[in-house]
Amino acid sequence: MSDATIIDGKAFAAKLRERVSAAVVKVKADSGITPGLAVVLVGNDPASNVYVSSKAKQTAECGMESFEHRLDESTDEGTLLTLIDKLNNDNKVNGILVQLPLPSQIDEQKVLSAINPDKDVDGFHTTNVGRLWTGGDALVPCTPFGCSVLLKDFLGSLSGKNAIVVGRSNIVGKPMAALLLAESCTVTIAHSRTDDLPGKCREADILIAAVGRPEMIKGDWIKPGATVIDVGINRIDAPERGLKEDGSVKTRLVGDVEFDSAVKVAGAITPVPGGVGPMTIACLLRNAVVACCRQNGLADPGI
Ligand code: NDP
Q: Closest Cα to residue 178, out of 208, 150, 211?
């Protein structure tokens, strides 16, 4: 059997960003409105810092207005809630994203609930969760949305397929299951208490790995020919790459799927890096334009 097709998320995300840019041009031409996305970062977490800068850069590159709010690590909940209220009431801001995690003095759920659901481009507000599960006009969490876009592009119709989602988090596993169900898949949601996980995975035509455990899902857990979407981003030591300047061992990124064994069994697979990861920000930009159109009574941009 030949190796799996590699689903190139990086290339797909670049195409999606082009479509977002074209939609922004059209929104501006039709209405004079420039879609705006506000990103709020509290504290100095290095990874969050990189994400926020990258989001702001790509927002501007797509022709949207980017509003960055960087608050001190010691910011109290009231100050953050006041800022969210201001952004909710600012009609130049169509999307609001609060970078997680937040420092421990702030109640994350309270902050997410304070965002106007129509500006909730991360799709974490319970109103959007409810809309997603009931087939309404939800803003859908970006990572699972990106996975479903890749799947539909590769497979066409997902109807009737057996899908397993390994992981049941609110930001990936559960919304992923809702999206697959909406595409008429038969969905299994697996988690740390699932009995015979390898056996259940072997029944799936579509396997989504969102576990956060490096290379946990092995090639012999995969049904021959299945489509595998690896959401995991795990940094592991890579002694074969030598040492960093500070003497510590170099590292590399791996997914939740053991790529080398999986690629020999699957029909198609997303790599890590370069698979699901790049789709997340592209889908965030897409959500911001969709939110802008809905808020201003403009036609859905169809992206
Ligand atoms: P969480 O830690 O919130 O959830 C992990 C899930 O995996 C839980 O439901 C847990 O089960 C389940 N799990 C843990 N261990 C096992 C096991 N041994 N067997 C079966 N299930 C298990 O993680 P997230 O959903 O936030 O993220 C998952 C992965 O996706 C991470 O690697 C993360 O870095 C990555 N990620 C990537 C993004 C991107 O590409 N842009 C965005 C978001 C996440 P239980 O509920 O029982 O504890």
A: 208
